[in-house]
Design a protein that fits this description.
With about 240 residues, the chain is an alpha+beta fold. The protein contains nine helices and six strands; from the N terminus they run βαααβαααβββαααβ. About 45% of the residues lie in helices and about 10% in strands. It has a six-stranded mixed beta sheet.
Length: about 240
């Protein structure tokens, strides 16, 4: 099922001024352009100059709510200048990575060889995805839609700049560190070439859990590193 990862300014994201991997491939092949899925409503705001103040005000609200926990300046470049980065990960692969992390944390449990149909029924996942958020891989395992470019050791729920229901928010630098730790404890991939090869090997339906998780890691770790380097948010695009 569709799931893309976007790294860049939220103004660009909500304006639809970016392409998913499938949209880019369609354009390059001469097919009809596929619009980004940020908001398909006909009355959605698309003008970056209108969106930017909304994002800035939202960010100020988040900064005020977290002022006791995050001391670094709570800002990032919301102009159209920063580059954006994106890739396709798929829901099954991302779920497999979350499950792989849970079993890495709870090595006393037997890791399944295939992705379980419902993560909420899995014993290792239930241990890690606890209400207290005490998992060492909480940035990977918790239900998070948006990782912010500050380093903090918790997750929380809030509305996005687009409003609507509250979603999970986390830390992009903390996500990158936890993914690096997961790699160290399991695969020990040490080169960009290895990650690139994993990313190119798109798993077929029903692929083993490790194949799915490894593919997801090859997709998301480089994007988390870019988010940390360029100080940009990471957004799941469903």
């Amino acid at each position: 099922m569709a799931l893309d990862i976007y790294v860049g300014s939220l103004t660009r994201y909500y304006a639809g001024d970016w392409e998913t991997v499938s949209a880019r491939l369609a354009r390059e092949s001469g097919s009809e352009a596929v619009p980004a899925r940020a908001d398909s409503a006909e009355d959605a705001i698309r003008d970056p100059d209108e969106i930017r103040p909304i994002v800035t005000e939202w960010r100020q609200g988040i900064a005020a709510a977290l002022k006791e926990s995050v001391t670094d300046p709570f800002d990032w470049d919301e102009s159209q200048k920063p580059s954006y980065f994106t890739d396709h990960i798929g829901r099954d692969a991302f779920a497999a990575l979350r499950l792989w992390a849970a079993y890495t944390e709870h090595a006393d449990l037997q890791r399944p060889t295939a992705l379980v149909a419902d993560l909420a029924t899995d014993p290792a996942f239930l241990r890690s995805n606890n209400p207290e958020g005490t998992s060492v891989y909480h940035q990977v395992i918790r239900e998070i839609e948006l990782w912010l470019p500050w380093d903090f050791a918790f997750t929380f729920r809030a509305e996005t700049a687009a409003g609507g229901s509250k979603v999970g928010l986390g830390s992009a630098p903390a996500l990158r560190k936890q993914l690096a730790d997961l790699n160290t404890k399991t695969w020990r991939a040490s080169s960009e070439g290895t990650l690139a090869s994993w990313r190119k090997e798109v798993p077929p339906p029903g692929a083993p859990l490790e194949v799915l998780a490894r593919f997801a890691f090859g997709v998301i770790y480089p994007l988390a590193a870019l988010a940390e380097k360029h100080r940009l948010p990471i957004k799941l695009d469903t």
